[in-house]
TrEMBL record:
UniProt GO MF annotations: inositol hexakisphosphate binding; phospholipid binding; translation initiation factor binding
Domain of life (superkingdom): Eukaryota
Record flagged with keyword Coiled coil: no
An annotated GO BP: poly(A)+ mRNA export from nucleus
Similarity remark: Belongs to the GLE1 family.
Keywords, sorted A to Z: mRNA transport, Nuclear pore complex, Nucleus, Protein transport, Translocation, Transport
GO cellular component: cytoplasm; nuclear pore cytoplasmic filaments
Subcellular location field: Nucleus, Nuclear pore complex
UniProt source species: Photinus pyralis
Protein name: mRNA export factor GLE1
Keyword presence, Ribonucleoprotein: no
Role description: Required for the export of mRNAs containing poly(A) tails from the nucleus into the cytoplasm. May be involved in the terminal step of the mRNA transport through the nuclear pore complex (NPC).
Principal subcellular localisation of the protein: nucleus
Length: 129
């Protein structure tokens, strides 16, 4: 007969989660996004191993809180760097449109169109992996 899970079965089940743990998960999420941008744009197949690592880390019970994954940290970062994945639209020719589409600025000017396309392709491949 299966038993109901108790509070002892779920790690990190307290009322508070250590801020250092959240910080480390945030740094891990930043690294994952960075890998998707740098490797996934040139070769979308390179995003698969990073995606496997991501799934492993964010699905592991030791890296959860109250039995819930902290994947929201990564999804929030995806929402900032690639809003198109979440339905955001805009005109590439205007300043506000580029901001809405997640174009990155290189100093006072925008990155070149090819660099933007590679960046979005890497993020899309990473999101799919």
């Amino acid at each position: 007969v299966p038993r109901e899970p108790s509070t002892q079965d779920i790690p990190n089940n307290g009322t508070e989660l250590p801020s250092l743990f959240i910080y480390l998960m945030n740094i891990c999420a930043k690294g994952i996004i960075s890998q998707f941008i740098s490797e996934g744009g040139a070769n979308p197949k390179a995003a698969d191993p990073v995606g496997v690592f991501t799934a492993q880390v964010f699905s592991h019970k030791d890296f959860s809180w109250r039995g819930q994954s902290l994947i929201d940290i990564l999804v929030a970062k995806f929402r900032v760097v690639c809003p198109v994945l979440f339905g955001s639209r805009g005109n590439e020719k205007t300043e506000k449109g580029r901001q809405a589409l997640g174009w990155k600025k290189d100093g006072p000017s925008w990155i070149p169109e090819q660099a933007h396309n590679n960046r979005m392709a890497g993020l899309g491949a990473g999101f799919a992996s």
